[in-house]
Every structure is written in structure tokens, then in C-alpha cells.
Amino acid sequence: MKITSAEFITSAVEKTQYPPDTLPEVAFAGRSNVGKSSLINTLVNRKNLVKTSARPGRTQTLNFFLINKRCRFVDLPGYGFAEVPLRVRAGWKGMVEGYLGSRRSLRLVVLILDIRRVPGPDDASLMRWLEAAGKPFLAVLTKADKLSRNGQQAQCRVIQDQLMLAQNEMIPFSAHTHQGRLELLHCIMGALGEK
Ligand code: GDP
């Protein structure tokens, strides 16, 4: 898939604010500061379509982007930021699970993890929730440029074991070197039923 256009549509916290459930969607999820904004910007070849925030955990909305005028990327609010109060975390869960659980046009969830870190309980619980709900997802290990190729492979195995994942469900990725960009686009395109 060649991305020829990408534009912000709207932010939403409630279902009534979502755009109509008519175009196929790919959602992006991950801990605050994992590199989610950078990953989406890299995919669409734009520096600042998604604003990278200086204060982790600040964005608590779902952000919808129209891609190539015929599908959408949905940037889910980052989770797992330690200083976020319990009330806000519960709000996150309701907002994200509300979207993921009800969206008919959702085709794929890209779950973003830091390749250098062991996944945390929030990552594992989202993944288990997706499995239980039968939602297709793909793990992408970002910041791969911080490790050698051998180091990347070793970390892939650690993360895979930790999350009990099949290897073909993980893609090492870097917003700096663009490693994994084409592979990820290919998977997204497949999920959207495009060539
Ligand atoms: P978000 O909170 O998940 O949207 O994360 P951001 O995209 O704002 O990135 C958080 C921090 O990680 C920023 O300082 C980025 O420059 C850095 N970062 C993001 N992606 C990469 C990457 O692929 N490689 C490296 N080395 N740093 C990255």
C-alpha cells in the first residue's frame, strides 16, 4: 500500500463522536511514550500528522485519520503511565475497550511495544483482551535502532515468550531507520484487503 494522503478527521472520547462506522479501520495501541506517534508518522511519511507529546499520558482521546480517502487509522490513547490516577486509567479502559469491542469496521489492532523492555501487565492484559474478543492484532517492536540485529532477535524471543505469541505476529520497527515499515504496511494492507 502506498500512502498518498493522510488527514486528521476528529478526536473522540465517546461513541457518539466517532465518525460513521463505514470505512475499514486499523487501530494503534501502546504504552505512553512507546513511540506510537512516531510509528504512525513514519507509516504515513509525515513529520507531524500525529503530534508527539512532551508530556506522556496526556492525550486521552481516540484520534481518527483518513488514509488514502478510503480507510482510517485510529490512534488510541497511550496507557500504563504510572502517574495517571486510577480514575483516569479506568476511563482509558472504558474508552479503548468500548471502541475495540464495538467497532464493526475494525480490521486490525497494531500493538506497539518497546523492543528493549519486557512487556508490562497493561500490555499483556490488552493482548489477552484482544485474544478473548477474537480481534486480529499484530505486535510491533519499536525503537529497534537501539539494538543490534542479534540483540533484536534475542529481545523478540524474550517478548514472544513473555506474551506467549507466535513469531510471525511480531515486527521489529524503527521510526529512525524505517526498519519494518514496508513489512508493517504490507500486513496492514492485507488486513484492509488492499493490494
Ligand atoms: P508516544 O507517546 O507513544 O506517541 O511516543 P512518541 O512517538 O512521542 O515517542 C516517544 C519518544 O521515543 C520520543 O522521544 C521519540 O523520539 C522516541 N522514539 C520514538 N520512536 C523511536 C524509534 O523508532 N527509535 C528511537 N531511537 N526513538 C524513538
Largest sheet: 7 strands, mixed
Instruction: Indicate the radius of gyration in whole angstroms.
Output: 16 Å
Shape: globular
Order of helices and strands: EEHEEHEHEHEH
Description:
With 195 residues, the protein is an alpha/beta fold. The chain is built from five helices and seven strands; from the N terminus they run ββαββαβαβαβα. A seven-stranded mixed sheet has the order 1-3-4-2-5-6-7, with helices on both faces. Strand 3 (62-67) and strand 4 form a beta hairpin. The longest helix is centred in the middle third of the chain and has 17 residues, at 86-102. It starts with 5 loop residues before the first strand and ends with a helix. Bound molecules: guanosine-5'-diphosphate. Residues 30, 32-38, 52, 56, 78, 142-143, 145-146, 174-176 line the site of guanosine-5'-diphosphate.
Key attributes of the depicted protein:
alpha/beta; 5 helices; 7 strands; 22% strand; binds guanosine-5'-diphosphate
